[in-house]
Amino acid sequence: MVQNNVLAEKSIDFGVRMIKCYQFLCKEKKEYIISKQIYRSGTSIGANIHEGIYAQSKPDFLSKLGIALKEAGETSYWLRLLYRTEYIEENVFSSLYKDCEELIKILTATIKSSKDNA
Fold this sequence. Notes:
By secondary structure, this protein is an all-alpha fold. About 85% of the residues lie in helices and about 0% in strands.
């Protein structure tokens, strides 16, 4: 149901960045709790988007994208927490946060337009 592959590709790219962030936090910062949380929420965004691509119905599609949006919101929170506790530097935070916010905007617009076309 996702007509625009941009969202799917951006979610994969973001997931890769979340995996690398997780690896960095564990290896370099010896941080295992928050890193696991951001790993789960950050990679879940793309997993739910891709589930939505193969949705059985429009309500199923909207549900999967809604879950992806919630996971993106959670990821945004963990990014801010990691930055404020100085686990990640400003340049890393800014780049990841910008990408996360972009996913949130695209998800929000896609959900809205899909509901409008229902």
